[in-house]
Specification:
- This protein has 444 residues and is an alpha/beta fold.
- It has two domains: 223 residues, Glucose-6-phosphate isomerase like protein, domain 1 (Rossmann fold), CATH 3.40.50.10490; 172 residues, Glucose-6-phosphate isomerase like protein, domain 1 (Rossmann fold), CATH 3.40.50.
- 48% of the residues lie in helices and 12% in strands.
- The chain has 18 helices and ten strands.
- A five-stranded mixed β-sheet has the order 1-10-9-7-8, with helices on both faces. Strands 3-2-4-5-6 form a five-stranded parallel β-sheet, sandwiched between helices.
- Helix 9 links the parallel strand 5 and strand 6.
- The model has no long low-confidence stretch (mean pLDDT 97).
- The structure holds 5-phosphoarabinonic acid.
- 5-phosphoarabinonic acid binds next to loops.
């Protein structure tokens, strides 16, 4: 198996094939809107053909800058939030040794900042970087997002003081808008290497641009394979029929939503996939949660969360469905040993691989949840590799575009995320927010 597979047999008892296929016309129209650029948000479709259209020169340039950062620095801090963070984080976590931080480094370690405004997090990061050679990849399409701007101000200042302005200028890479924004201006003035986030690619669809590719390459992973997996999925998701896994997934989840399943839980059985769930939540949450509509995207990491969320999923309100991501082959082999005393009673599985137990936990859970009233969609990845992550991320992106159009929303805007920013700026007395400041203070 080298292709991602989608199986919807475990939704059959909840929505009929007829109900799913009733969405054929809407899904086909959604796919056509993407391909022809005729739907809402059509100025944000630059992600659609990124895998097949990314030029060799861009890949080679990213690899060259990544090699310099990897060789010269002990740490490289990727600064960004939301779509300017989650894609790289998801791929790096999925491919990294779970204990990499505690083992000898094989190149620069990639750390993240600007994805929160935790003061202690920031202090502890700066404490770690004290006296260390580090580089910065600052990623912000707008160049004005508060969280990464604060982190960049602090770390740029620290790097310049520690290593001098010349080293800093050579080891800061900015990924931002082509022309606009504070970051572009600063990068030009300071002579940083830069990459462009094209206007027509929204943050949550940007993992296959330098936003994701540069940190992933710095972490030592093969971005060509990532792009190849996405490219093969791009080719496999072009037709308006059920052989197109993105099309089928988009139809199925909308049919479930129409049948009252308002919450989708992305389930993994591999701790390395936690951040894929976080990336997926942003992709679907920001794309579909608008106009008082949209499936609420949640995620669990099993079997860990079977011991916390398992009760709710088994017997709580029946408004949920699950999309299980299964990884067919593991990259390592660990067998359970036999034990003469067998006090733990585990000899019945002695000699078997841990993954066999995990797979039976997965299968047993799927059956129990389906029996308990939770429809299950199944996505199988052959293994955790750059190629397969490219496949799955593009699969979800394409499905998200189709699904948003089936739901009849603009899948490519996010007007709602401005509300908290307006209040925060008013509360912080940002110049230009005087009226809002007065109004919000009066409410406190
Ligand atoms: O998907 C999105 O558009 C957002 O998550 C943005 O990526 C996020 O807010 C960061 O924005 P920016 O890259 O402009 O700093």
């Amino acid at each position: 198996m080298n292709k991602l597979e989608l199986n919807i047999k475990n939704v059959a008892g909840f929505v009929s094939a007829d109900k799913i296929n009733a969405l054929d016309a809407a899904a086909a129209a959604g796919l056509e809107k993407l391909e022809k650029g005729t739907g809402a948000g059509n100025d944000f479709l630059g992600w659609l053909h990124l895998p097949s259209a990314t030029p060799e020169s861009l890949v080679a340039s990213i690899e060259a800058n990544a090699a310099t950062l990897r060789e010269d620095c002990e740490y490289v801090v990727a600064i960004g939030i939301g779509g300017s963070y989650l894609g790289a984080k998801a791929v790096i976590e999925a491919l990294s040794d779970s204990f990499a931080a505690l083992k000898p480094a094989k190149g620069a370690r990639v750390l993240f900042a600007g994805q929160n405004i935790g003061e202690d997090y920031t202090y502890e990061l700066m404490d770690l970087l004290k006296g260390k050679k580090f580089g910065i990849i600052v990623i912000s399409k707008s160049g004005t997002t508060t969280e990464p701007a604060i982190a960049f101000r602090l770390l740029k200042d620290m790097l310049e003081k520690q290593e001098g302005k010349e080293f800093a200028a050579k080891h800061i890479v900015a990924v931002t808008d082509a022309n606009r924004g504070a970051l572009r201006k600063l990068a030009t003035e300071e002579g940083y290497a830069t990459y462009v986030i094209e206007d027509n690619v929204g943050g949550r669809f940007s993992v296959l641009t330098p936003v994701g590719l540069l940190p992933i390459a710095v972490a030592g992973y093969d971005i060509r394979q990532l792009l190849q997996g996405a490219k093969d999925m791009e080719a496999a998701t072009a037709t308006a029929d059920d052989s197109n896994v993105s099309y089928l997934y988009a139809k199925t989840r909308n049919a479930l939503y129409n049948a009252g399943k308002k919450i989708e839980i992305l389930v993994n059985y591999n701790p390395k996939l936690h951040y894929l769930g976080e990336w997926w939540k942003q992709l679907y949450g920001e794309s579909e949660g608008k106009d008082n509509k949209g499936i609420f995207p949640a995620a669990v990491d099993n079997s860990t969360d079977l011991h916390s969320m398992g009760q709710w999923i088994q017997e709580g309100e029946r408004s949920i469905f699950e999309t299980v991501i299964s990884v067919a082959s593991q990259n390592h082999d660990v067998k359970i040993p036999s034990d003469e005393a067998n006090l733990d009673g585990l000899n019945y599985i002695a000699g078997r691989r841990i993954d066999e137990v995990n797979k039976m936990a997965e299968l047993g859970t799927v059956i129990a949840h389906v029996d308990g009233g939770v429809p299950n969609i199944h996505v199988t990845l052959p293994s955790l590799s750059e190629y397969n992550l490219g496949q799955v991320m593009y699969f979800f992106e394409k499905a998200c575009g189709i699904s948003g159009y089936v739901l009849d929303v603009n899948p490519f805007n996010q007007p709602g995320v401005e509300a908290y920013k307006k209040n925060m700026f008013a509360l912080l007395n940002k110049p230009g927010y005087e009226e809002e400041s007065k109004a919000i203070q009066a409410r406190l």
